[in-house]
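Annex B. Sample input.
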Amino acid sequence: MTSGEAAEAGGSGDEADAWRARLGWAFGLIADNPAERAAALAHLDGARRNTWAALDRWNELWHLTRPLGPEEQYQEPAFRRAREVYADMCSHSLPEGLWHGEGARGPGLPYALLFLEWEARFPREWTQHAKAWGTKQSLIRRMAAAGHDQPTRAKLIDLVEIVVQRAYRCKDREYVRVARAVDCEDLRHRLGAAAASDGPWARLHAGYVLWLLDRPEVPNTRHVWRTWVSETTRGQHGPIEPCS
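Annex B, continued. Sample output.
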């Protein structure tokens, strides 16, 4: 998704403009051009340093103003300003800028999708610069909702396809929620192709998702996953999940 497409997906209005002003640069993180990605990564590193510095200042003032008592402390001008600066720095960075989103709708949606696409397509860079498994899990769960528009559904289908073809990464199993939310012929066709491919991870992961799509009543738990893997790979050396 280009920055122009992201702007269109984010809608119009003051709130969408504010999101673009804060995080529009982040679409460079998923650019095909390595130089554009490098520039976005440098921007992110600077934004995160600013965030950490603001947090250090807030913590410093918290200790200095603590003797005032809780009510007076939070009214103390320097302490209040430090809190405001920290919140502003967070809003310009990732993953912090996504921590107070509005769910799976609204002008923040393109940036939630961006963060997930970045992790899916460039996992090494994501891990090095902004690893946040809890944020990844939270965003995936927000995306697992009905009623998305077609461009969003298409992006989510792409993400499921990417994820099932790779070795398991932390919280990838959450994408089953998304697959169930956007279940359609196109998704099943892609999963079927992955399940019939030469890639052992793709065969296993895609097969598992297809199996669950046909059984909406079955919970997507670690026990179900391990039981399915054991039965599917009986007599073979099946993969072990590195984390939940």
